């Protein structure tokens, strides 16, 4: 099962919304996963398969290759499309 994290600055509001959006997107894709929401400081100390965040935080994750950037955190279709592209590129879908 894939481990996905939704990340924002403090790990409270935006990341929770992003988590719920990603859960809906992954359900539509038919992919089982475990999604949590964290703050940026927690990311470096945890293991995960995919990090999902907004484009605003891109500069914080330039060293990671397993990041999916969502343009609109409440747009399930945007999240689905971007996650689908990443999953296909990794042979996971």
Written account of the structure:
With 93 residues, the protein is α/β, with parallel strands linked by helices. It has a single domain (2-89), classed as Response regulator (Rossmann fold), CATH 3.40.50. Helix content is 38%, strand content 25%. The protein contains 3 helices and 4 strands, in the order βαβαββα. A 4-stranded parallel β-sheet has the order 2-1-3-4. Helix 1 links the parallel strand 1 (2-8) and strand 2. The longest helix has 17 residues, at 13-29.
Present the secondary structure layout.
Layout: E1 2-8, H1 13-29, E2 33-39, H2 40-43, E3 50-54, E4 67-70, H3 76-89
Helix pairs in contact: 1-3
- Quick one: CATH superfamily? Response regulator
Number of helices: 3
Q: Average the pLDDT over all residues and give the rounded result.
A: 92
Give a count of the beta strands, DSSP E runs of length 2 or more. 4
Uncertain regions spanning at least 5 consecutive residues:
none
Largest sheet: 4 strands, parallel
Q: Between the first and last Cα atoms, what is the distance in angstroms?
A: 13 Å
The percent range for helix content is 25-40%
Strand content: 15-25%
Name of the top-level CATH class: Alpha Beta
**Structural class of the helices, strands and pairings?**
alpha/beta
Cα-based radius of gyration, to the nearest Å = 12 Å
Number of domains: 1
The CATH architecture is 3-Layer(aba) Sandwich
The CATH topology label is Rossmann fold
Shape: globular
């Amino acid at each position: 099962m894939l481990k996905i994290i939704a990340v924002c600055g403090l790990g409270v509001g935006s990341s929770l919304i992003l988590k719920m959006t990603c859960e809906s997107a992954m359900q539509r894709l038919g992919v089982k996963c475990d999604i949590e929401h964290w703050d940026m400081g927690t990311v470096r100390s945890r293991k995960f398969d995919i990090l999902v965040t907004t484009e605003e935080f891109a500069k914080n994750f330039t060293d990671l290759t397993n990041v999916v950037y969502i343009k609109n955190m409440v747009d399930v279709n945007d999240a689905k499309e971007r996650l689908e592209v990443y999953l296909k590129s990794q042979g996971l879908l």
